Amino acid sequence: MADKYPHHQIEPKWQQYWDENKTFKAADFSEKPKYYILDMFPFISGAGLHVGHPEGYTATDILARYMRMRGFNVLHPMGWDAFGLPAEQYAIETGVHPSKKTTENIATFKRQIQSLGFSYDWDREINTTDEKYYKWTQWIFLKLFEKGLAYEAEVPVNWCPALGTVLANEEVIDGKSERGGHPVVRKPMRQWMLKITAYADRLLADLDEVEWPDSIKEMQRNWIGRSEGANVHFNIPVIEKNITVFTTRPDTLWGATYMVLAPEHPLVNSITTTEQKEAVQAYQNQAGLKSDLDRTDLAKEKTGVFTGHYATNPVNGEQIPIWISDYVLMSYGTGAIMAVPAHDERDYAFAKKFKLPIMEVVSGGDISTEAFTEIEEGVMVNSTTPDGTFSINGLKPSQAIGKTIEWLEAERKGEYAVQYRLRDWLFSRQRYWGEPIPILHDEDGGVFPLSDSDLPLTLPVLEKIKPTGTGESPLANAKEWVRVVDPDTGKVYRRETNTMPQWAGSCWYYLRYLDPDNDKAGWDPEKEKYWMPVDLYVGGAEHAVLHLLYARFWHKVLYDLGYVSTKEPFQRLINQGLILGEDGDKMSKSRGNVINPDDVVREYGADTLRLYEMFMGPLERAKPWSTKGIEGIFRFLNRVWRHFVSEGDQLQHISNKIAPDQGTLRQLHATIKKVTEDLESKSFNTAISQLMILNNHFRTLEAVPRESFEIFVLLLSPFAPHLAEELWERLGHSTTLAYEAWPEYDQQYLFENMIRFAVQVNGKLRDTFDISTDATKDEILQKAKSLEKIIKYIEGKTVVKEIVVPKKLVNLVVK
RNA sequence: GCCGUGGUGGCGGAAUUGGUAGACGCGCUGGAUUUAGGAUCCAGUCUCCUCUGGAGGUGCAGGUUCGAUUCCUGUCCGCGGCACCA
Q: What is the DSSP track for A723-762?
């Protein structure tokens, strides 16, 4: 191993140099154009970094370094997302306070990240659990509250009576608690909600303004789930009230043969007959145990109970039975639907199971076998009011929808409506390790926000973090903290004991990086105007919907209040794919396939790890780790080093005297072009293979001209910065190459005077030939047809078509 | 189930305004060097066949085209998300 290149010396040396010289400190305000490149900061767990983290971090680091060399003022920060479940669970199990464990874990993450030589401006490091940070998270919550976007509601949670605590979905497996296997029930509990639905239309519309992958935009659009239709009012004679349903298909009103309410619908009790009471209540209890996912999408078999009463169909006066079923969700629409089994698949399945009538109002399908749901095909039938004054018969469903809404509005039986699938954000957690919600309650149910000057509201230090047994947060155990007495009035308040979800801190961290030490404000508006928006945001695809939607929502609220100057926080977004274990499975402790970057750095060095992570394949794709693959990259860096640095530690095979030959110039400039273009398109893997090709070429030369080699070193430097800095220094430069100008290619060296053409006969490759680049089409054809192998194929046949693709191929079609 | 995404040699992958499939790397085979092993260097390496040539080949089945990994239809399988993991 003696002849391996000395990464153990080189890497710490340059990390120390960058640190001491603050090489990567980002200046607020500059003549240069700014570039804000952001990583999704890591969620801190006890497991430390795994090789999946550095994938995105390496990609952004390469681009950050590249952009500096292109003359940009680059902001590239890092911080820690450190509230959340793991530290709290650890505390419950071991008695170690979450803040202690979190501090240790952060130290590990930081050491690991720094060992990879990323060019972060460490003066901007942030930590969501730092009270100087979460003071401003709480401040934003107060802004949301003042704007009426935070409210309390009764919402079901996963309640585990045996553990005396509320569980996260993740902690519930098949209706049992992960720890102990105790039964878990859905229990309504008072919760803080954020009214993200008030921003649904803007969250949807402004997706057009950001440069994100179409697939991510599509997922967000589907998540928001805008649908247009009508609210229709059905009279319920027994209670002399209306129940409003939302439907996207008001044209099928004449086909509504029954109505379904969500089991939790507030009117269920009042419209249930005595005979049905028992069955309805049993069903309600049962439905309460299921999650929405179990109730709707995963439920193959429909269930439900008849309430015993009827509703009046507003278009024809018919009495239709009212059922309850868990495929109707209280959280979507009005919690009630009109069921049109002939033209809705779910209603069809339900009607078949409970033998309810199926009435065709759009002809064109076969409703004896399945629901017919087309709206551009088919013709409305049986759709006339009893008095004959209104009919949509004969129309296409898509035309009938609008006409029916007009009629409903005129008759005051309904109106146009837009519904979103997006639900308000359940914002409270019954946990200790989160930001305290800065709210006081009085005995009469009054809610009082703290004033800005009371912030931060810090977490009380608890001797032991343990469940309260009531479902309240462990904070409720901190009696003195919870009880607040107004010094002026003597009035007693109770602090909110719920805390914020982990998402809160990550909803605005990109703003805190702009001004991390400001204790007067979350950030300085001038700095915000200079740096925002984030020019490139890189992180895991698993955040495609939730984190990105929540952060966009907060940003828009801050925009409305004038605290930020851009409508959207993240102008460009890239999602990196998962790095899988060597066995092709997701890395996890239980599978034993986790690769620890510490081991890789020790064995091969940071540059090798960085290069390998990028060489594995396209950034966005999931790809398996390979120990053999990383050795290949290590060999490449070794070859670079050993070819140019002698045993005696002197530069070799580099000449000041010779000029580059044509072949070298062409390879060199092709490499500048390819690497530059690949960096622009984030195709890191192919950029690296091009660098390998150039190095392979260099190694065939007696000596490489110094200027050519320097260009190679600069091109390599964003990928393998330690090695590049070391070579740069040995080439006689006294300062870092981090701000050297990025090489530019010259088109003239790429020119070749001969070009290779492929010759196909009937689309099959038969031969190739070389010809001058300025050859005419006729010359090319003539040459192609004169080739021995080609003559064999066209002899005695008629050439019916001759295709010449410039600079590529000739195809002769013969009969 | 719904939404999104992917499927190319033994492996990771390359090549798409439709134009020579398999760049680069790994692995493997042979050779050089070495007391030996490792490391390093050189050459070869999609599969098959009747081998100076030819046939097949990009999950599967079709279609469009002079020509399809690329476009279209259908289908199978893997992965990510599904609102309290983040």
A: HHHHHHHHTT--S-STTSPPP---GGGG--SEEEEEEEET
